[in-house]
Design goal:
Largest sheet: 5 strands, antiparallel
CATH topology of the largest domain: Beta-lactamase
Number of domains: 4
CATH architecture of the largest domain: 3-Layer(aba) Sandwich
CATH class of the largest domain: Alpha Beta
Helix content: 25-40%
Distance between the termini: 97 Å
Structural class: alpha+beta
Number of strands: 27
Length: about 775
């Protein structure tokens, strides 16, 4: 090359750079949003902003057969020219001039792409602009990028653009799976998108296919026997709807991203079967006025969401099927209880066999009730949790502290609880708060992962802060899991141990007030599954319950994804000791404890307490009376005996429920000793509390006292004015006035107590 030619070339290149800078070519394209599953298959697709089906073709989806076919047909010298082919331009110009009409084109793939990106009228001036744009594309992008973009924009009739869109819509398959006959058909349509549009008549597309297959044979582009097979294939393309699976998750993810392809962790086969399970259950339950359910499945080790069913039927408008029940805020019923028990295990003041009281209790005017409207007396904490008893659980929350309990929930990303934490009271443990299914599944996945919480993972390639937090200790998580595994299952009423073909699961149910929400959450080492059932309208149903409605769905889903569990169950971690405790109290046995059971405690954490369920007493030989050290000198003969050491609340429970119990004989009546620790105590209302009462209710605050068994009558006073005398076990109420009120009680043995409360009347 001479210096003049070199200088001319450099000058032209410099002019090109100046023009390229002055007139940049915008190649941005808005694609349809694709949501794909864990294997890369399409779950869902959404139109582009200009209402086109324009699916983004990824590099690995361009097969060698597709590349050979499109390059042979459109631009055989694509990888050789700089975007404009001078030889083709000269030939086309000569043929068009000599024939007097446009007989031949000279557009390269790059020039066609420039026209697709910026359509203009077919004029010579616009052709020059098109060639300049082609040079710009070649300067800024690689050949493979240009080819892929071209394949993404090919017109296929109507609002269909790109070979990937055409492949899915016309043939229902990924471009990688197209046969040679289908490829030959698709590469011809962009030249005649109107005449070859896919309608009822398939002859035009088959004729065009055959024409190009014969040309492929002449050029030895493909093996002859493959072309012979393609020639026999009769194409019957029909316009299909694109997939619409996991619609709630797809819509949720699409609304929060500008990505063209959203890669989820959804496992389609599980998703499909779980959708079928949800639909089948709801079809059976609709006659009970239960119209919807939501299911979420996560993989515990990775926290990946592998199934997301927002409703039983996305298209059921009558049941608000498009509402996403996975993220909807509902009342959790009893599903938060396991966390509270585990926190108490970590605090050290509770273990599975330790007994707690399930008796009538009043917390500043709030009197919780159990599901069956009965009380169970002295019960182990594990049984209280298995039976999901409300009253002892509220007492545990009161002891632990509401704010202390809310703190790990906030760290577990319970957003509604975080926003409303200053308004929540003791009822939150029974469902008096708002949670979502995904929040509960995230919490239970922490139980499944040794007490460690991590944010749920919905999709790949997303930059987000993964929140990690230790919610409970590994030891407490293990103890909790052992308890939840022993809950009687609706599918295995006897024992899962007798059914080796069913996965072992730790699980909990919940039913909200008014039977508006039914929950069942379960986990093993591999998966955590959550189920909600109810009505999106908020309407309750008498038949709705966690055990009766949600749990059967939970176990059907577990049987689908983990029908024969081959995984090892959780092993007892270091720090969990098994010790013998008294069967009566769950405490360290005393010398008089004759029956013991094994309990699990956290070494160095669980506070040891000596059992005191019996107490010694000095009684007459005929067991007629009891002596203290002061009056025993008046007894001619006596003996020592052991008697139950019941608390005042348990004694009151026995009397209220008319339960016979063993008690020491009455104290020697001529004894002059005073026992200050056995005085009268007012247990309702509670001293120094503020009460909010319903102005329309005439029977509002209960008056209740406890005193030693030798009292038979109580005398009540309101603001130092006599109100009523009642027998020891008789119920009595009073209608308070607003303001501060002094309440006094005396028994017929002269014992007395005064308390002070304040009252505000409101209209509920």
């Amino acid at each position: 090359m001479t210096m003049v030619a070199l200088a001319a070339t450099f000058g032209l290149f410099l002019i090109f750079l100046i023009l390229d800078y002055a007139f940049p070519f915008d190649r941005r394209v808005d694609y349809s949003t694709l949501v794909i599953d864990s294997k890369g298959d399409i779950l869902n697709a959404y139109l582009s902003k200009d209402d086109k089906w324009r699916l983004y073709l990824e590099p690995e989806e361009i097969t060698e057969d597709l590349k050979k076919a499109i390059l042979f047909k459109e631009d055989q010298y694509f990888y050789s020219h700089p975007g404009v082919n001078p030889v083709s331009i000269g030939r086309a110009f000569f043929q068009n001039i000599t024939s007097g009409k446009r007989k031949s084109g000279a557009s390269t793939i790059t020039m066609q792409l420039a026209r697709l990106l910026n359509p203009k009228k077919r004029t010579y001036g616009n052709k020059i602009v098109e060639m300049f744009n082609a040079l710009q594309l070649e300067y800024h992008y690689s050949k493979d990028d240009i080819l892929r973009l071209y394949l993404n924009l090919l017109p296929y009739g109507g609002n269909i653009e790109g070979i990937k869109s055409a492949s899915y819509i016309y043939f229902g398959k990924d471009p990688k799976l197209l046969s040679l006959a289908e490829l030959a058909g698709l590469v011809t349509i962009p030249n005649r998108p109107s005449s070859l549009s896919i309608k009822n008549d398939h002859d035009p597309i088959n004729q065009a296919k055959e024409k190009w297959l014969l040309r492929f044979r002449e050029a030895n582009l493909f093996q002859s026997h493959i072309i012979d097979l393609a020639l026999t294939e009769n194409l019957k393309p029909n316009r299909r709807d694109l997939p619409n699976h996991a619609p709630h998750l797809s819509r949720r993810l699409m609304s929060n991203t500008k990505d063209q392809i959203i890669k989820t962790y959804i496992e389609y086969e599980y998703q499909k079967r779980i959708e079928e399970i949800a639909s089948a259950h709801i079809n059976r339950l609709k006659y009970l006025n239960v119209t919807n359910t939501s299911v979420m499945v996560i993989e515990n080790k990775t926290r990946r969401v592998i199934s997301y069913v927002g409703s039983a039927n996305f298209y059921d408008e009558q049941s608000a099927g498009q509402v996403d029940g996975v993220s909807a805020i509902r009342s959790p019923g009893s599903t938060l209880k396991p966390l509270l028990y585990a926190l108490h295990y970590d605090k050290g003041n509770l273990s599975p066999k330790r007994r707690i009281a399930d008796v009538q209790m009043n917390f500043g005017g709030y009197e919780p009730e159990n599901y069956d409207n009965s009380f169970h007396g002295w019960i182990s904490s594990e049984e209280a949790l298995k039976q999901s008893l409300n009253v002892p659980t509220v007492q545990l929350l009161n002891d632990y502290g509401i704010s202390n309990f809310i703190e790990p929930l906030v760290r577990s990303q319970f957003r509604t609880i975080e926003r409303t934490k200053n308004k929540l009271g003791l009822s939150l443990i029974l469902g008096g708060c708002g949670v979502s299914l995904e929040e509960l599944v995230g919490l239970y996945s922490a139980f499944a992962n040794s007490g460690s919480y991590e944010s749920l993972q919905f999709r790949e390639n997303i930059d987000s802060t993964n929140r990690e937090s230790s919610i409970i200790s590994e030891q407490a998580a293990y103890i909790l899991t052992e308890i939840l595994t022993e809950v009687t299952r609706p599918d295995l009423p006897d024992s899962w141990k007798d059914n080796p073909n069913r996965p072992r699961i730790a699980w909990k149910t919940g039913t909200s007030f008014g039977r508006r929400d039914a929950w069942s959450i379960g986990y093993n080492q591999e998966y955590t599954i959550g189920v909600w059932a109810g009505n999106f309208s908020g309407e309750g149903s008498p038949e709705l319950s966690g055990v009766g409605v949600a749990a059967p769905i939970l176990f059907d889903v577990f049987n689908v994804i983990d029908d024969v569990s081959t995984y090892d169950w959780y092993k007892r971690p270091p720090g969990v000791d098994r010790i013998l405790v008294c069967d009566e109290t769950g405490l360290t046995p005393n010398t008089f404890c004759t029956s013991t059971v094994l309990d699990q405690v956290i070494k160095g954490v669980t506070i040891p307490r000596i059992c005191q369920h019996l107490k010694p007493a000095l009684i007459a030989l005929d067991s007629s009376e009891t002596y203290c050290m002061t009056c025993v000198k008046d007894a001619e003969e006596y003996k020592e005996a052991l008697f139950p050491n019941h608390t005042a609340e348990m004694l009151d429970y026995f009397k209220t429920e008319k339960i016979t119990y063993t008690k020491a004989p009455d104290h020697y009546k001529f004894c002059e000793r005073v026992f200050p620790d056995q005085g009268l105590e007012i247990v309702s209302p509670v001293d120094r509390l503020e009460y909010f009462v319903d102005a329309s209710d005439e029977k509002q605050i209960q008056l209740k006292a406890q005193s030693p068994s030798n009292a038979s009558k109580y005398f009540w006073y309101i603001n130092d004015v006599f109100y009523k005398s009642v027998s020891r076990n008789e119920e009595v109420y009073f209608t308070p006035t607003e303001g501060k009120i002094k309440i006094s009680c005396s028994d017929d043995r002269g014992r007395n107590q005064d308390i002070m409360i304040s009252v505000k009347k409101v209209s509920f």
